[in-house]
Design goal:
2 helices, mainly beta, globular, about 0% helix, about 500 residues, 20-stranded antiparallel beta sheet
Length: about 500
């Protein structure tokens, strides 16, 4: 549901899945968040939008930087980073290590991450930058608890997770390149990437997977006037490919025993997108965009266990349009609105449920979303607020058994509604104090579903508030309390029983 990027280069694997453990936020110079339809300019048409981690370069990085953190439950994190410039060449590199025993039994985590880039200014209007990253992460999985278990001992692990030594460990190596050619009224960007991931994942079975993902992307931005009016035009093409060896074994206390499955899986995704901002007035822009996506999922069953052939092939395609407008009431106050479509095919892990002989293949999720909002600053206040409604069809929902906590797989709902408010308000209180606040109203529910009727969608607090009162002193010192508050209980199962 969210497109992850590093300097505009996709981090998601080819089937759309993303992994936040493959990212080191401390290595980012800053982070851009494109909510919903705003992410179309980077080729995203998913409901959740996109997050872009912008890396430091040698031109804006410290020569040396060291960060050390420590906390409860043997928590520690160390990061060292360096950057510099030599003529037309610059570099940045960071190395971090993290570990924590965790509050619960069997919940230890540790990882090490290397993120680096090197840039070459070939000409005043041409730059190319190479990226390299390596991640090694190990995570014990304590599993879900029933309400009774939680009240009895919240530190305990799920007995099946503990006896099966359930974990999620992987190594990831990734290289990428982004080349930018500056034009008179815009630029053209060309990017490529390749990643290799090896996953060791003992759960109900032992999953041993090796995946190779690669892609080629082109993006063109033109800001030439159109008919005497300011205009910004973006067009891009993305192609992503993935190959995975998916081996599965009987899990005996965390060890792989008899092989149960051997799959070769392939994914290909092609998308073409465009967006135009036409300024009808200096302060009023009309926005129109569209994205066309075609993606396939192919699985070759090499083992054919019990005489059952699980070779599968499935494809998804859709055209997703967008219309909107942006009005700058003043240089510091902006209003916006849009209507958009979104599209999300299932990843391989979400593709099929049911029996091996008669699987049920998931459909792609799509939605029509309406949004209106404002952002800006006035006096001591900075705000960002949006009201939205998404009419979702075939929503991909993970289900659990509330009695045992066991996962029941991913299925499509018929019709669901996501609507509510996202609001942020920051207040500057004098020279050194700031009050930062976020409020969410999440009205998420099924719409006359055959199984769940008009129930609430599980796992989403209806109201959520977060605030921080911060003192900011000299030379970077800061301190202050923060609070998170969900003023009413919310369900953990779609049947709304717990």
């Amino acid at each position: 549901g969210i497109k992850l990027m590093q300097d505009g280069i996709p981090l998601n694997v080819a089937d759309g899945g993303g992994d936040f453990q493959a990212i080191e936020p401390l290595a980012a110079r800053y982070i851009e968040v494109f909510r919903g339809a705003s992410a179309l300019e980077y080729g995203s048409d998913t409901l959740g939008g996109a997050i872009n981690y912008v890396m430091p370069t040698g031109y804006d990085a410290d020569r040396f930087r060291l960060r050390v953190e420590t906390g409860s439950f043997d928590y520690s994190r160390v990061m060292a980073a360096s950057g510099g410039v030599n003529g037309d060449v610059d570099y940045f590199t960071s190395l971090s290590a993290y570990q924590q025993d965790g509050f619960r039994d069997w919940s230890q985590q540790k990882n090490a991450r290397l993120f680096s880039n090197i840039g070459f200014r070939i000409a005043p209007d041409l730059e190319t930058r190479f990226y390299a990253s390596y991640v090694n992460t190990d995570s014990q999985l304590p599993g879900n608890l029933t309400k009774e278990q939680l009240e009895d001992n919240p530190k305990q692990a799920n007995k099946f997770s503990f006896s099966g030594r359930q974990k999620r460990d992987f190594e990831l190596a990734r290289i990428a390149n982004r080349t930018v050619k500056t034009l008179d009224n815009g630029q053209i960007e060309f990017s490529t990437y390749y990643s290799q991931k090896e996953l060791w994942h003992p759960i109900y079975q032992v999953l041993e997977q090796r995946s190779d993902d690669y892609g080629v992307n082109v993006r063109y931005v033109n800001e030439s006037p159109l008919a005497g009016h300011r205009n910004r035009f973006i067009v891009g093409m993305e192609s992503h490919f993935g190959e995975m060896d998916d081996d599965r074994f009987v899990n005996q206390n965390g060890h792989a025993r008899k092989r149960t499955a051997d799959f070769d899986q392939e994914v290909s995704t092609y998308s073409l997108y465009g967006e135009n901002h036409f300024y009808l007035l200096p302060e009023l822009a009309l926005v129109a965009g569209v994205q066309a996506t075609h993606t396939t999922r192919n699985q070759d069953d090499l083992l054919k266990a019990s005489g059952t052939d699980l070779t599968r092939e499935k494809s998804y395609q859709r055209v997703s349009p967008k219309l909107g407008m942006i009005y700058d009431a003043t240089p510091d106050i902006q209003f916006f609105s849009n209507m958009s479509n979104s599209f999300e095919p299932p990843s391989f892990s979400e593709l099929a449920t049911g029996t091996a002989v008669s699987p049920v293949f998931a459909d792609a999720q799509h939605a029509t979303t309406f949004e209106v909002g404002s952002r800006g600053e006035l006096g001591i206040a900075q705000w960002d607020v949006a009201l939205y409604r998404a009419n979702v069809r075939k929503e991909l929902l993970a289900r659990i058994d509330p009695a045992t906590g066991a996962p029941l797989g991913t299925t499509n709902a018929d019709k669901t509604v996501h609507q509510g408010i996202e609001a942020g308000l920051n207040l500057s209180l004098g020279n050194h104090f700031a009050l930062n606040q976020v409020y969410l109203f999440n009205d998420f529910y099924f719409d006359d579903d055959a199984v769940f009727g008009d129930n609430r969608i599980a796992g989403i607090p209806r109201h959520f508030y977060k605030a921080e009162l911060l003192y900011q002193g000299k030379k970077g010192f800061y301190a202050g309390p923060n609070v998170e508050w969900s003023p009413e209980k919310y369900y953990v199962d779609h049947a709304n029983t717990v």
